[in-house]
Amino acid sequence: MAETKTTEKTGLYIHIPFCDHLCYYCNFNKVFIQGQPVDDYLDALLKEIRLTLAKYPRTAISTIYIGGGTPTALSAAQLAKLLGGLHQLIDITDQEFTVEANPNDLLDGTKLPVLREYGVNRLSIGVQSFNDTVLKKIGRTHSAAEAIQAVENAQKIGFENISIDLIYRLPGQDLADFNRSLQQALALNIPHYATYSLILEQKTVFYNLMRRGKLQLPSQDMDADMYQLAMDQFAAHGVDQYEISNFAKSGYQAEHNLIYWHNQHYFGFGAGASGYLGDTRYQNFGPIQQYLKPLTSDQRPVLMSETITPDQQIEEQLFLGLRLNAGVNKAEFKNRFGKDLLVVYPQVIPKLIQQGLLKETPTAYVLTDRGRFVGNDVFADFMLV
Ligand code: SF4
């Protein structure tokens, strides 16, 4: 694996694959926490970080993100063990340090103080909807009131940089209902929101229901209307869209995710996590026992790694960069790949501009509003390999 250049931004992602309930739409790498070797997993995780960072000793960590699963499904003592262990391995100063949380875990006053104490400065809370009936239908175990309470508890203890997720096109949802969720979200006075359309993923309860004809979802047209509504409402409240699914007040864009969208580098630690260092992408073993095993003999739990060719890097730069409202920066592209975008895509770029799907600004190529609705079709045009 080539060593990451220290001049580039490098993020650090840590995966906690445990949940205390399983939502009907979710196909993330996670398991039900009960009966799992959670403490062994945390020991192994810290060992993996130590072994890996020893190979990349001069890499400055720009952002830290603990996701899942549900990191806050860990007990307060387990969170303290993980975060305390991290402080011994990484120089944690004032970089963005995000932890994903479920509302249920922020109600009893035990976990939020631990997160604060160890320097976590950003929370991403999975709210999904503020309608109790919809929440039940998608397998969430918190109520709307508890989600609001969770955000307020976090604010009270000093978290200001909070993001919540909302999903639309959920069963039982209509435009008016989604609008009520949006208005409630906006009333929380937080600086960041992510909103996604429901995707039916294989191996989920919803996917099985759909195959048996037992899942009623809002139509595709309604899906587009909900997305438009979200864009309009966030804009009307001074929360700027900066990525297809992400909206932030000025100064609160998610720095860790920007590392992904700018196709920069990141470590991935934990079961099933992937990382991208130098020109190499790697992925860890996903099943927990398979992840733990190599670490018992001080081996990194890497399932596979591959070299990303220059053409693949160019494609990825386009796919990821076009998700951003700032688009793909022309100078950044030339600096990284040594040639102009137009030289690489002499036909595709003019064609998409002519179709009204792409526009050129003085500094970048950017999806138009119409292009954003058909993003995947546009991305396909930029395939090189
Ligand atoms: S959505 Fe979050 S809480 Fe629900 S099962 Fe997936 S990872 Fe767990």
List the helices and strands and how they pair.
Elements: E1 10-16, E2 18-19, E3 31-32, H1 38-55, E4 63-68, H2 76-89, E5 96-101, H3 111-117, E6 122-128, H4 132-137, H5 144-156, E7 161-168, H6 175-186, E8 192-197, H7 205-211, H8 220-236, E9 240-243, E10 246-248, H9 255-261, E11 265-269, E12 274-277, E13 280-284, H10 288-296, E14 302-307, H11 310-321, E15 328-329, H12 330-337, H13 341-344, H14 348-354, E16 358-360, E17 364-367, H15 369-373, H16 375-381
Parallel strand pairs: 1-4, 1-11, 2-3, 4-5, 5-6, 6-7, 7-8
Antiparallel strand pairs: 8-10, 9-10, 12-13, 13-14, 15-17, 16-17
Helix pairs in contact: 1-2, 1-10, 6-8
The structure holds iron/sulfur cluster (SF4).
Comma- or semicolon-separated keywords:
alpha/beta; TIM Barrel; 2 domains; 21% strand; globular; binds iron/sulfur cluster; HemW-like
Q: How would you summarize what this structure contains?
A:
The protein has 385 residues and is of the alpha/beta class. It is built from 16 helices and 17 strands.
3D architecture notes:
The chain has 385 residues and is an alpha/beta fold. It folds into two domains: 10-260, Aldolase class I (TIM Barrel, Alpha-Beta Barrel), CATH 3.20.20.70; 310-381, Arc Repressor Mutant, subunit A, CATH 1.10.10. Helix content is 40%, strand content 21%. The chain has 16 helices and 17 strands. It has a nine-stranded mixed β-sheet with strand order 9-10-8-7-6-5-4-1-11, sandwiched between helices. Strands 12-13-14 form a three-stranded antiparallel β-sheet, with no helix packed on it. It has a three-stranded antiparallel β-sheet with strand order 15-17-16. Strand 16 and strand 17 form a beta hairpin. Helix 1 (38-55) packs parallel to helix 2. The two termini are 23 Å apart. The model is unreliable at 1-7 (pLDDT under 50). Iron/sulfur cluster (SF4) is lined by residues 19, 22-23, 26, 28, 30, 68-70, 102, 126.
